[in-house]
Write a structure and sequence with these properties.
The complex is a heterodimer of chains A (279) and B (445).
Chain A: E1 2-11, E2 14-24, E3 29-33, H1 40-48, E4 55-60, H2 69-72, E5 75-78, H3 90-100, H4 106-116, H5 132-144, E6 150-154, H6 162-177, E7 181-186, H7 189-195, E8 198-203, E9 206-211, H8 213-221, E10 224-230, E11 233-239, H9 242-251, E12 257-261, H10 265-273
Parallel strand pairs in A: 3-7, 3-8, 5-6, 6-7
Antiparallel strand pairs in A: 1-2, 1-4, 8-9, 10-11, 10-12
Chain B: H1 2-17, H2 19-39, E1 49-55, H3 60-71, E2 75-79, H4 83-91, E3 97-101, H5 105-110, E4 118-124, H6 129-144, H7 147-151, H8 154-170, H9 176-195, H10 223-228, E5 232-238, H11 250-270, H12 272-279, H13 281-287, H14 292-322, H15 329-353, H16 357-374, H17 386-391, H18 396-410, H19 414-439
Parallel strand pairs in B: 1-2, 1-3, 4-5
Antiparallel strand pairs in B: 3-4
Helix pairs in contact in B: 2-16, 8-9, 11-14, 11-15, 11-16, 11-18, 14-15, 14-19, 15-18, 15-19, 18-19
The chains are: A alpha/beta (279), B alpha/beta (445).
Chain lengths: 279, 445
């Protein structure tokens, strides 16, 4: 579906993307996970064809570079910023983009999208009056107006409340269920773990590893930690089999408390980069 | 102190990083200084008013005025054969005024003491009213400059005194004693003039010494009499109105006001693409299956429509509210379309190349100010030296006024309207092409 081969991009003395390669399969939700400044948004911009790489190649759907507008037609982008016209209503915004893409029945398409992002009740309100979460959802709807095969979501939950975040994650899952391919950048590891079929860990413009969350954890997460409390004393045990370890500890008797810490993407990131995801 | 220096350093850095601020802070004052330096005689040649001169009857005074006018540094004189040709030149805007020295000038000289005055006519372009006063004053001065020559001409003086004697004799409102007194004064004057050798340097060269001031008022003790009688009769008239059509001064002011409406369109739309860029919507637009040409065309079309609306509004207001009439409605529509195209092209040029809203707004205002300055929007073109007048041909302000005035009130022939229209279309096309190139540049970070 999408292939990036050895992409490099520099801005002056800063290397934003440093030989990044990845392959996104049709129908999957692919997460690009990395801290702010890791090169995720630059990678997305290169994927859209809006930014030319200094080196490397991008191929979309086997049709070639997205720099070609005919190839780019298959892409939908929800940028990190809210890219809407605040002076226009929700419906006017979507109608504008639908007309830009030459959608045959724009009104029906727009109504469907407004319902999907649960903004139909506010369809005729100016976007500037929306909450952050509502703007995010409309931003996502604008990316879908031309029914693209590949949807690029750049930090789609940045700065929204937990309720809106959950709604956006549900929408992403729904889009995936429709058979769309989604590239999802985030620095929230729990989001990536929740919705991504595979995750690529990016830092300093390089792809450190790619895999499913269990695969990454298995490769880089290390052992689970089981902390057993007996009276006032805590005992921490590192194990590959936390369930078996807990059983063994209870069999020993005198256990007043147990805490199991399984490795997660944060642990993986720490292991791969030596720093926390949110640094 | 370190904090103060740090703050100052930061603000200076910000200033130098904003091209709009740099332009208005450093470049624009230099442009103004150079511009006004040229305007007020700092170089680049002298400022001259273009006038058409028609001498309808050969006479000594006409020849003298014509020669003096041609030699005057304030005027660039074009001799024309007929009054009609001169009026056409004024109407087409090629000259600011037509000066006509009529065949009756000699009659005026001969009957100088009979109160008729020496007739001189000037037909001015209503959009050049500022020049009218200057021209009137200059013609008075030139006429009075002929008086020493008249006094030195004994034959002329004889005719003049004979005319005066005849006038007094035939005057109905004078008593016999007043006629006798007047005849005595004429005789004394004639006797004095006859005693003076025409070649005698004692004949005064200074008009003031002849008893007439250069401003046209005789230094009489009787102020009322001086005000009532002037030996020079300079008639200033505006262009004759078109047959059967009313005309008001708003015919002139509204086309000139149009340019400021069009200028407003530039400022409104020059920032449109950078606004898209700054709010991120440009990324969406560029992802859509449209190229830079379509993007610029779409933006330009909005600007074009706004420019047409503002022109229609102003012209409609002039016609409905101020009694203006349109000489050539179809050509006026064409001129408005060309003007809107030129100014929307300029807006797209700025829109395509500016990277920040501040830069676009600054460049928009800067472009308007400079184009207005050199296009005569702030200072009349006739005040400008030749180099600036030449530069003014590069300003769409000049051309849009020329294009609109022609069919609106000047009623100029089509051949005179083609050049402004072509220039406006060329400005617009170049603006759009450059704007497309600007928008097509690769995205920055």
């Amino acid at each position: 579906m999408l292939t990036l081969r050895d992409i490099r991009k520099r801005f002056g003395a800063t290397t934003a993307v440093d030989g990044l390669s990845l392959e996104v399969r049709a129908g999957e939700v692919f997460g690009l996970l990395g801290p702010n400044g890791a090169g995720k948004s630059t990678t997305i911009a290169i994927t859209t064809g809006l930014l030319a790489p200094d080196a490397g190649a991008v191929d979309l759907l086997g049709l070639g570079s997205p720099a070609d507008p005919r190839v780019r037609m298959h892409l939908g982008l929800a940028p990190q910023e809210i890219t809407l016209y605040g002076e226009l209503t929700a419906r006017e915004n979507l109608m504008f983009f639908a007309r830009l893409y030459g959608i045959a029945s724009p009104r029906a398409r727009v109504d469907g999208l407004l319902a999907m992002v649960e903004l139909d009740a506010r369809a005729n309100d100016r976007t500037a009056t929306f909450s952050g979460g509502m703007k995010r959802r409309l931003n996502l709807a604008a990316a879908l107006v031309h029914d693209p095969k590949l949807v690029l979501l750049d930090e789609p939950t940045a700065g929204v409340d937990p309720q809106s975040r959950n709604r956006i994650l549900e929408l992403v899952r729904a889009l995936a269920a429709e058979g769309r391919t989604i590239v999802y950048t985030t620095h929230y590891m729990e989001e990536a773990a929740k919705i991504c079929d595979r995750v690529g860990i990016v830092d300093h413009g390089r792809m450190l590893d790619i895999g499913t969350v269990p695969e990454l954890i298995a490769r880089h997460g290390g052992k689970s930690a089981v902390t057993v409390t007996r009276g006032e004393a805590d005992e921490r045990v590192l194990t590959d089999d936390p369930v078996g370890e807990v059983s063994r500890q209870f069999a020993g008797g005198g256990v007043t408390g147990v805490r199991v810490e399984r490795p997660d993407l944060e642990t993986v990131f720490l292991a791969l980069t030596g720093r926390s995801l949110r640094e | 102190m370190r904090a103060v220096l740090a703050l100052a350093g930061k603000d200076l850095r910000l200033l130098f990083r904003d091209r709009g601020d740099v332009f208005f802070t450093f470049v624009f004052p230099v442009i103004l200084a150079i511009f006004f330096g040229f305007v007020f005689g700092g170089g680049g040649g002298s400022s001259r008013i273009d006038v058409a001169l028609v001498v309808e009857g050969e006479s000594r005074i006409a020849a003298g005025i014509a020669a003096d006018l041609a030699a005057d540094a304030a005027f660039e004189v074009q001799r024309m054969d007929t009054r009609e040709a001169a009026v056409d030149a004024v109407r087409a805007g090629r000259v600011a005024a037509a000066v006509v020295l009529p065949a009756t000038m000699q009659d005026g000289v001969d009957g100088l003491f009979s109160g008729r005055g020496i007739p001189i006519e000037a037909i001015v372009d209503p959009s050049h009213r500022a020049e009218a006063g200057l021209i009137q004053g200059k013609l008075n001065e030139l006429a009075f400059r002929q008086f020493p020559r008249m006094l030195a001409d004994r034959a002329q003086m004889s005719r003049l005194f004979a005319g005066a004697r005849r006038s007094f004799a035939e005057a109905d409102g004078m008593t016999a004693s007043q006629k006798l007194l007047a005849a005595g004064m004429v005789a004394a004057g004639e006797s004095f003039m006859n005693s003076v050798n025409p070649a005698d340097p004692a004949v005064p060269a200074n008009p003031a010494a002849t008893g007439v001031g250069p401003d046209g008022a005789a230094p009489s003790a009787d102020g009322a009499a001086a005000a009532a009688w002037s030996p020079v009769d300079v008639q200033i008239a505006e262009l004759p109105p078109r047959a059967g059509r009313p005309r008001s001064s708003f015919d002139v002011t509204f086309p000139q006001g149009l340019v400021w409406g069009l200028a407003g369109c530039i400022t409104a739309f020059a920032a449109s693409i950078v606004t898209e860029r700054s709010r991120g919507t440009l990324a969406r637009l560029r992802l859509a299956p449209i190229g830079p040409a379509q993007l610029v065309a779409g933006k330009g079309l909005a600007c074009f429509a706004a420019a047409l609306v503002v022109q229609a509004l102003l012209i409609g207001l002039a016609v409905v509210g101020f009694g203006s009439s349109i000489a050539q409605p179809l050509m006026l529509a064409v001129a408005c379309v060309a003007g809107a195209f030129a100014f929307s092209g300029l807006a797209m040029l700025l829109a395509g190349f500016c990277r920040t809203e501040a830069e676009a707004n600054g460049a928009g205002r800067g472009a308007i100010l400079i184009l207005a300055l050199i296009g005569g929007g702030s200072i009349p073109l006739f005040f400008m030296p030749p180099v600036l007048r030449t530069l003014s041909f590069g300003s769409p302000f000049r051309w849009v006024v020329a294009a609109v005035e022609g069919p609106f009130w000047r009623d100029t022939p089509l051949s005179d309207q083609i050049v402004p229209l072509v220039v406006l279309l060329a400005i617009g096309a170049l603006g759009f092409l450059a704007g497309m190139r600007g928008v097509g540049r690769p995205f920055g970070r």
